[in-house]
Amino acid sequence: MLKLAVFDFDSTLMDGETIDFFAEELGIGEKVAYITEEAMSGRLDFFESLQQRVGLLKGLDYSVVEKISHNLPYMPGAKETIAELKSRGIKVICFSGGFRSATGYAKDILGYDADFSNILHTKDGKLTGLVGGDMMFNYSKGDMLVRIQNILGINEQETLVCGDGANDLSMFAHAGKRVAFCAREILKKEANIIVETKDLTQILQKI
């Protein structure tokens, strides 16, 4: 019986990549999107790619970051799926290699219980190009998942994880139900549930 469900944010609970939206404001959307894709496909170290992409955002007004973060397009079925899981007594958590400006805001809209993500460093109202937080490395999601399982007394078979990219692999190693959602091939290989259409409610039919 499931007790814990952990969802990635970018391209899973949200339809797109938050950092790519930021980059478009600076006219470097394609450049950042390319690095994102390389990282999500497992061809680039996540930590290095994160540092590189955030570095390119240096100088962006934080007010723009907040505006974009508060107007992101959520994935079809995200709110309904989380509500249904919670109605079954399942704790729902968001892990994101993206940013608290987006996941913290979405928490009350989508209804998950907690979010773990990264913080964009600001100074004088602008991004400095530096970043820190809970989800900086390839192994971060798996590491955090094990810690939460230990705190809650929940085992792998009682855990569902859902994501789309290579930085979700580490949490796939610690869950009985592993959902690859519109995912890269590297993640599909480790999944036991695959959803190919942008509708998160499809997960409910498969668990």
Task: Provide a brief overview of the structure.
It is built from nine helices and seven strands.
Detailed description of the structure:
With 207 residues, this protein is α/β, with parallel strands linked by helices. The chain has a single domain (4-205), classed as HAD superfamily/HAD-like (Rossmann fold), CATH 3.40.50.1000. 39% of the residues lie in helices and 22% in strands. Strands 4-3-2-1-5-6-7 form a 7-stranded mixed β-sheet. Strand 3 and strand 4 form a beta hairpin. Helix 1 packs antiparallel against helix 2 (29-40). The longest helix is centred in the last third of the chain and has 13 residues, at 140-152. The protein is globular, with a radius of gyration of 16 Å. The model has no long low-confidence stretch (mean pLDDT 96).
Proportion of strand residues: 15-25%
Shape: globular
**Strand order within the widest beta sheet:** 4-3-2-1-5-6-7
CATH homologous superfamily label: HAD superfamily/HAD-like
Q: What name does the CATH topology carry?
A: Rossmann fold
Mean pLDDT: 96
- N-to-C series of helices and strands: EHHHHHEHEEHEHEHE
Radius of gyration: 16 Å
Class derived from helix and strand content:
alpha/beta
Number of domains: 1
CATH architecture: 3-Layer(aba) Sandwich
Layout: helices, strands, pairs:
Blueprint: E1 4-8, H1 18-25, H2 29-40, H3 46-56, H4 62-69, H5 78-87, E2 91-99, H6 100-110, E3 114-123, E4 126-133, H7 140-152, E5 159-163, H8 169-172, E6 177-181, H9 185-188, E7 193-195
Parallel strand pairs: 1-2, 1-5, 2-3, 5-6, 6-7
Antiparallel strand pairs: 3-4
